[in-house]
Amino acid sequence: METAGYTTLTRQAGLLREMQVVAxxxxxxxxxxxxxxxxxxxxxxxxxxxxxxxxxxxANVRNTSMMQGxxxxxxxxxxxxxxxxxxxxxxTPAGQRLTRAGSxxxxxxxxxxxxxxxxxxxxxxxxxxxxxxxxxxxVAADGTMSANGRPLxxxxxxxxxxxxxxxxxxGVMFRTESQIEPALNGKLRQGFLEGANVDPIxxxxxxxxxxxxxxxxxxxxxxxxxxxxEAMKTFTR
Length: 237
Prior knowledge:
By secondary structure, this protein is an alpha+beta fold. Helix content is 26%, strand content 33%.
């Protein structure tokens, strides 16, 4: 295969990955706390001896949108939405993870947990515990939780030092290798949930664009394959 064919194949592979990312965004447009994802395309150019340079396109870096999602009032005392920057810090068997999905509940032990049963951590990295006799539970904008006017703990609001370092593990959870820092520009809203920050119309439009670009590349590969076949027939006559 000639250089043009290899270049087109790398582009096709990147477009296919982007199609999968866009389809996942659309599928999660109604998922609480979901962050829209995109792909960053880059170009790799290498000088070729006695010929033109070789250019390859790659799309391996995933970019998570930090745009604010819409807030919906639920009235639930254990429903929390983050307005502004930041993530909830949760404890999983695989280590600490970040999420914006704030639909929580209380475990049998009194720990604040996610819908998957993972414990929510406070500002110091300890599990958030709610005493069984706690009533009139309120959470301030800074995450301070109180019951009957008595402070209990502070729900942790954090963010990674490098947002591009975040790796998605499922629809709403992320892990990061960078340092986790307090989120200074975020606040909690009790009785609210943050919806997905997906733009469905924009994502459907992008899906159509990617599909057309992929079909164009496939047409080029088909034409290039036919050209090579005809050339081989000519040489073997």
